[in-house]
TrEMBL record:
<keyword id="KW-0769">Symport</keyword>
<dbReference type="Pfam" id="PF00209">
    <property type="entry name" value="SNF"/>
</dbReference>
<keyword id="KW-0472">Membrane</keyword>
<dbReference type="InterPro" id="IPR000175">
    <property type="entry name" value="Na/ntran_symport"/>
</dbReference>
<feature type="transmembrane region" description="Helical">
    <location>
        <begin position="148"/>
        <end position="166"/>
    </location>
</feature>
<feature type="transmembrane region" description="Helical">
    <location>
        <begin position="178"/>
        <end position="198"/>
    </location>
</feature>
<feature type="transmembrane region" description="Helical">
    <location>
        <begin position="91"/>
        <end position="117"/>
    </location>
</feature>
<comment type="similarity">
    <text>Belongs to the sodium:neurotransmitter symporter (SNF) (TC 2.A.22) family.</text>
</comment>
<keyword id="KW-1133">Transmembrane helix</keyword>
<protein>
    <recommendedName>
        <fullName>Transporter</fullName>
    </recommendedName>
</protein>
<keyword id="KW-0813">Transport</keyword>
<keyword id="KW-0812">Transmembrane</keyword>
<feature type="transmembrane region" description="Helical">
    <location>
        <begin position="344"/>
        <end position="361"/>
    </location>
</feature>
<feature type="transmembrane region" description="Helical">
    <location>
        <begin position="390"/>
        <end position="407"/>
    </location>
</feature>
<feature type="transmembrane region" description="Helical">
    <location>
        <begin position="210"/>
        <end position="231"/>
    </location>
</feature>
<feature type="transmembrane region" description="Helical">
    <location>
        <begin position="427"/>
        <end position="454"/>
    </location>
</feature>
<feature type="transmembrane region" description="Helical">
    <location>
        <begin position="305"/>
        <end position="332"/>
    </location>
</feature>
Length: 456
């Protein structure tokens, strides 16, 4: 007979908020959001993104909160408990698979961030110009040994924190570092917005021109909404299994989505004014963050110190998001497969490192493994595309169908109202309207497009 281990929970509502926000806020805000917005035409893309957050992201986040807190299990165990002996548990299995796919490329970019922090501390960016910023980014990603080394360091840090557990690891780190992140990013904004020519960047971010919007851009906005809010792949289910009984999950979902979107906007406001001020192209792609930020602080008093602060905050954001990513397989392996938490963290770290090297060596067409492609995508882009644009929206669709059509309404009302303690009748009606009719329809429409795009 197995021993029933007492499961940890976060210690307060504030801890829940910071941990969940720590999962949402990450490279998605600071690295992915700006370059995708840049590549997809600015304001119109932003508007579609907001709609995806509202009509798809929020209802799915709430659904995951329900599944996690009600069952208090890892992603696979939770679905098995909710719908025993049915294929629904495949949502959890797909979630574990997605979390590996994301980790493979995420750990690579997080490695660049750590490396940039190190370079900033060493003074490598003093007197940087547009040309040298581009050249330095090229050197960092081409390595080949240094990006692999930094990827290894990131993975070791994340696995180390996770072995400390939920309260002493995840909760402690996120509660200390998330508030700091807000302060640092606002300092960056003040600097960027006072650069000559900053207005053009703001205009780019907020000017809506639907002529720019392709089907691929709409899919990218949807994928970004999932990626941003860590949805459709088990992270929010796993984290909510550590929520306290008193959490108001409605307001938690809204607060997390709003704060996360605010951080993305703040990142956009730091990056686009710089892009235009230095005459760079907003369409520069994944290197955008790394080429612009060193320029933001060049030629200003204490510039290098601020640069260090910026990469420090990005490293924090990347690390706390990775904690939640890796927690999915760690909780699964330790609860379902009888491994110790430490063993599960080490095994996941080893897999993440070995396969992650493939991503790191295929970032660019000219990288060592850049010539190996599938549907025209190298490993790095493939891991990103399949997770964000296929697996996560598909996981989200299945979650919407499960919650909308296969779970008893009374059960949902009971759990979301904390067993009658919260008055949420009106909100529950809106939730069901969205999760039954709006969210799945939007997902199917965009998803069919994705299949079309893949064939192109
Ligand atoms: N939300 C994180 C970010 O924006 C990425 C992430 C995706 C984290 C999925 C966990 C799960 O960087």
């Amino acid at each position: 007979m197995g021993v029933v281990k007492k499961r940890e929970t976060f210690s307060s509502g504030l801890a829940v908020f910071f941990a969940t926000l720590g999962s949402a806020v990450g490279l998605g805000n600071i690295w992915k959001f700006p370059y995708l917005t840049g590549q997809n035409g600015g304001g119109a893309f932003l508007l579609v993104y907001f709609c995806c957050i509202l009509f798809v992201g929020l209802p799915i986040m709430l659904s995951e909160f329900y599944i996690g807190r009600k069952t208090r299990k890892n992603a696979v165990g939770a679905l098995e408990e909710l719908k025993p002996g049915t294929p629904w548990k495949n949502i959890g299995i797909m979630g574990v698979a997605s979390s590996y796919l994301i980790m493979f490329f995420y750990s690579c970019v997080a490695g660049w961030v750590y490396y940039y922090l190190f370079k900033a501390i060493s003074g490598d960016f003093v007197n940087v110009t547009m040309e040298t910023a581009k050249a330095q980014f090229g050197d960092v990603i081409m390595g080949p040994l240094s990006p692999i080394l930094w990827q290894f360091i990131v993975i070791a840090v994340v696995a180390g924190i996770l072995t400390m557990g939920v309260k002493k690891g995840i909760e402690k780190i996120t509660k200390t570092l998330m508030p700091l992140l807000f302060i640092l990013i606002i300092i960056c904004d003040i600097r960027a917005l006072t650069l000559p020519g900053a207005a053009e960047g703001i205009q780019f971010l907020f000017h809506v021109d639907f002529g720019q919007l392709s089907a691929a851009a709409i899919l990218a906005a949807l994928g970004l909404a999932f990626f941003k809010l860590s949805l459709g792949m088990g992270t929010m289910m796993t984290y909510s299994s550590y929520f306290t009984e008193e959490n108001n999950m409605f307001s938690m979902a809204v607060k997390v989505a709003l704060s996360d979107t605010l951080v993305s906007m703040l990142a956009g406001l730091a990056i686009f004014p710089t892009v235009f001020s230095f005459g760079m192209e907003p369409t520069a792609g994944p290197g955008l963050l790394f080429m612009t930020i060193p320029l933001v602080f060049s030629q200003m008093p204490f510039g290098n110190l601020l640069l260090i602060a910026f990469f420090f905050l990005t490293a924090i954001a990347a690390t706390t998001a990775m904690l939640s990513l890796v927690e999915v397989p760690v909780a699964y392996l330790s609860e379902e497969k009888g491994m110790s938490r430490k063993g599960a963290a080490i095994l996941t770290a080893v897999i993440m490192f070995i396969v992650g090297i493939l991503a790191t060596l295929s970032v660019d067409k000219t990288s060592m493994l850049g010539h190996i492609t599938f549907f025209g995508l190298g490993f790095f882009d493939l891991f990103d595309y399949i997770s964000s644009n296929v697996f996560m929206p598909l996981g989200g669709l299945l979650i919407a169908l499960l919650m909308g059509y296969s779970i008893k309404c009374e059960d949902v009302v009971a759990e979301l109202s904390n067993h009658g303690k919260l008055k949420i009748a009106g909100l529950v009606n809106v939730y069901f309207l969205l999760i039954r009719y709006v969210t799945p329809v939007l997902l199917i429409v965009v998803f069919l497009n994705a299949i079309g795009i893949l064939k192109m």
